[in-house]
Design a protein that fits this description.
This protein is an alpha/beta fold and about 350 residues long. The chain has two domains: about 1-125 and about 310-325, ATPase, nucleotide binding domain (Nucleotidyltransferase, domain 5), CATH 3.30.420.40; about 130-300, ATPase, nucleotide binding domain (Nucleotidyltransferase, domain 5). It is built from eleven helices and ten strands. The strands form two sheets. A five-stranded mixed β-sheet has the order 3-2-1-4-5, sandwiched between helices. A hairpin with a 4-residue loop joins strand 6 (about 135-140) and strand 7. The two termini are about 30 Å apart. The structure holds adenosine monophosphate and magnesium ion (MG).
Amino acid sequence: MRVLGIETTCDETAAAVVALNPMGGAEILSNEIMSQIAEHAAYGGVVPELAARAHVEVIDRLVERAMAKAGVAFADLDGIAAAAGPGLIGGVIVGLTTGKALALATGKPFLAINHLEAHALTARLTDGIEFPYLLLLVSGGHTQLIAVEGVGRYRRLGTTIDDALGEAFDKVAKMMGFPYPGGPYVEKAALTGDPKRFALPRPMMGRPTADFSLSGLKTAVRLQVEKLKIERGGELKAHDVADLCASFQTAVIDTIIDRIKVALRLFYAECGMPNAVVVAGGVAANKAIARALTSFTAELGLPLIVPPGHLCTDNGAMIAWAGIEKLRLGQSDPMDFAPRARWPLDAAAEPVHHGKA
Ligand code: AMP
Ligand code: MG
């Protein structure tokens, strides 16, 4: 079984071909990506109109390249998958329309993929993990703890009531004067910092629900920055930046572990022990977080799965794989499937305060 996957929900244009062999193993035949980071950097964040235009400009070539690198013709495909949301609607329309057009022209089944579902299923592509498992999805737009019970079966155990974790990293990075997206710079600066110098809050610690809140922590960092700037008569010193980043990252790690503990309790009550804890999304690239989670889950006797960085951030392979997961269950989607800006994995979950699924 071979499926082409197309991803255009944010600032990455991506196309990939993934194959499922008869033994059930998966193989990524190609995984092409073009990042628009440079185009948005000057604005300190993703500009939706620029993103949509950039997707239009490269999508055709990228699909061609993914097909050529995989060494397959359209006739060899079993399906064509495209992310249909959630995301920036202009970009979503570009990828979704491309996928539909290719499916129509080739007569292949079409699969409209939930981008979050693709993140949720990636650990099955990389590690062949069985359901059920606990997913920590931490990206620029989402911070959620999800019980993954099967294809199409997701239960949200917790979510952020304000900022996403990646967003908090980016905002803290901006305060330190780092470029966008700043998460990796915060991690690097934290390496040489003193995590105990600043007593920052650990929001939601000890609460019985598995939700996150990050804006208070971000504000506490901002207040420290302002205070230090006054003390220093203007600019922060390099060691201030390092200590702030280390203190922030440690507060984040403590919060994540506390929230996962609650989520595991909720998970256990509903569906027994999970087979693993899986981390996905851009923030999963953070080695300090992964290290802390590895020792925490090891104590519980649970494996921690963090797919490699290029499969944790937005990519086409995860869309193709989600397509395979649906296709092998006999599912496909109609041509009038509409793009969705918002598309929660768990439709039954209550919307949260700020409306981020
Ligand atoms: P995504 O939305 O999944 O593409 O993830 C992008 C987000 O991940 C951005 O907010 C980045 O700042 C964040 N990110 C990437 N690498 C790291 C890292 N090493 N540490 C913390 N955050 C990171
Ligand atoms: Mg993503």
